[in-house]
Amino acid sequence: MREIHLDTPFGRLAALRFGHGGTPVLALHGWLDNAASFGPLAPHLDGLDLVALDLPGHGASAHLPPSAEYTLVNAARAVLSAADALGWSRFSLLGHSMGGATATLVAAGAPGRVARLALIEALGGLVEAEDATARRLQDAFAALAEPAGARRRVFPDVATAVRARLLAGGLDEAAARPIVERGLAPAPDGGYVWRSDARLTRPTAVRMTEGQVRDVIRAIECPVRLVHAVPAFRFFPADVRDARAALLRDVQVVGLDGG
């Protein structure tokens, strides 16, 4: 494993590169996670040139300028820019949660560039009904009045930050610690703060409808393997998962017991 940096129109993006040569794969982490998410999985993925990206605003990657929005579309564009910086015209994608939603957009929007798609707990992103559009926009604009990071928590040490991540649920300490360690930066007056962009916790201004997400999924041409938890995770319920997967041309759906 080694740290690399990629200069892109979205700023300098950081990544962890596992292996040397092999099938090119970009790995995309979940919301407020980072490239270290894939550390425990990487030893099981022989024969891959696996590059786990810190998406913009996450991990060691640059934050977007104040005028730019954190959206799935911008994340997808950043992924394509990272592939360009690597010199990859064609590659596969491995995405977890928000990273899987981003990978869905990349595969649909640039089908000629994506050879295969592996998704963990995502196929498309979160959706909203049309009649909630104005309320979401109002909430997003209202959040702009509060300075980003105004209430940023300071942790006295790494162990306290790890415990906070465990309280959020879903991970044991062995899985959480690498993500937390990569996600921290020294605070000016001592201790540690999350180095992810605080604007990532603001409401998204616009979400797709379910119909729009399904239209995106229908455009995916490559083979897909979708891995999900049993029982289903609350943000990716079984009925939504199965209906979306049925739209794919070439898909394997794999359920694994666990959270």
Give an account of the 3D structure.
- The protein has 259 residues and is an alpha/beta fold.
- The chain has a domain at 2-130 and 206-257: 3-Layer(aba) Sandwich (Rossmann fold), CATH 3.40.50.
- It has seven helices and ten strands.
- The protein has an eight-stranded mixed sheet, with helices on one face.
- The mean pLDDT is 95.
Spans of at least 5 consecutive residues whose pLDDT stays below 50 are none
- The averaged pLDDT comes out at 95
Silhouette: globular
Largest sheet: 8 strands, mixed
Strand line-up in the sheet with most strands? 1-2-4-3-5-6-9-10
Distance separating the two termini: 27 Å
Rg, Å, rounded: 18 Å
The share of residues in helices is 25-40%
Number of strands: 10
The CATH superfamily name of the domain at 2-130 and 206-257 is Alpha/Beta hydrolase fold, catalytic domain
The CATH topology annotation of the domain at 2-130 and 206-257 reads as Rossmann fold
> What is the string of SSEs from the N terminus onward?
EEEEHEHEHHHEEHEHE
CATH architecture of the domain at 2-130 and 206-257: 3-Layer(aba) Sandwich
Content-based structural category: alpha/beta
Beta-strand content bin: 15-25%
Continuous helix count? 7
Describe the protein's topology:
Elements lengths: L1 E7 L2 E8 L4 E6 L19 E6 L18 H15 L4 E6 L1 H12 L4 E7 L12 H11 L14 H10 L5 H11 E3 L5 E3 L15 H9 L5 E7 L7 H8 L5 E7 L2
Parallel strand pairs: 3-4, 3-5, 5-6, 6-9, 9-10
Antiparallel strand pairs: 1-2, 2-4, 7-8
